[in-house]
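Why does residue order matter? Because the sequence determines the fold. Keep that principle in mind as you read this record.
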Amino acid sequence: MIIVLDASGAIEAAIDREKGKQVLDLLKLADITISPDIFISEVTNAFWNYRKFSQFTDEICLKGIEFCINLIDDFVNSNDLWRESYFEGIKNQSSTYDMFYLVTARRNGGMLISMNKKLNSIAKQNGIKIIEN
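Structure:
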């Protein structure tokens, strides 16, 4: 099984939120876990926000970022995805950031793991398997 993990799914596991164990259990079943290369900047930005607006220390944030990055086996070059992601964003009235994950999952026949309800809804409409929230 191929899994496409987005930043929200990885962070769910990294900070041990409600669905974190479920995410990690699914990743153990995967033959490969992939993500568009924008994943790294999204995860880094999310932990920067945790540092800025919560009690997270630099050490916690850096460990969290590394944990998330290490969940991915292979990164897909966003240069190969941007055009299709752009048009999917227009069609679905959704962030093109999210559409990079959708396109990656669709192209690879992968299951999408995301905590983003709108992205999950769009993925489901496109016949992409999702983690049920």
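The beta strands are 2-5, 32-36, 74-76, 111-113.
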